[in-house]
Design brief:
five-stranded parallel beta sheet; 7 helices; globular
Length: 177
């Protein structure tokens, strides 16, 4: 199966790519960047993914442009439900690239994180799969959470401390006294 994997960052791709390759899937990555704030964070993640993907011979499509304004305009006044929009936008972009590239399926490294809403990701992926007549491949990659962390540390990768958006950055670093 030829699969396009939405890849949020290098550390989160370690375990899923390994598992998918063990399943004999032809995996290509897709780096979506419109939600990542600030831009320097986006660049660090992209740079780390480029280094890692070259080291494991993983081809990756890198989204061009940086439409942070679109992301912010789409979630303003809906901040508590921002992840729903973010999952949708990232998976929709991945599905569209997969459809154009004649992939058999699409998936996401978001399924590796124990901090993400797997039910909502799965529902979103399955709805988009119907809309675009393309298989959404669900796998609970959380089983490899610790393995991926250990490997990313061993490789001395840049490891971000929040999901990516300005709101998750605030949740991570701003602590009320």
């Amino acid at each position: 199966m030829k699969l396009l994997l939405h890849t949020c960052c290098a550390p989160c791709s370690i375990y899923p790519v390994n598992i998918l390759r063990q399943m004999d899937m032809d995996v290509m990555g897709f780096f979506y960047r419109h939600n990542i704030h600030p831009f320097q964070e986006c660049q660090k993640r992209e740079h780390t993914l480029k280094q890692y993907s070259q080291s494991i011979d993983l081809k990756v499509i890198y989204q061009q442009d940086y439409k942070i304004e679109n992301f912010l305009q789409s979630v303003v006044f809906r901040e508590k439900d921002r992840c729903r929009y973010c999952y949708y936008d990232r998976l929709k972009a991945t599905a569209l690239v997969a459809k154009k590239g004649k992939f058999d399926a699409f998936s996401t490294t978001l399924l590796y994180s124990k901090f993400q809403n797997h039910d909502l990701i799965r529902q979103t992926g399955e709805a988009l799969s119907k809309k675009y007549n393309l298989k959404f491949f669900y796998n609970d990659f959380r089983k490899g959470w610790k393995l991926g962390i250990e490997e990313s540390k061993r490789l001395n990768m840049y490891r971000q401390q929040y999901c990516g958006c300005i709101y998750s950055e605030k949740d991570r670093y701003f602590k009320k006294e």
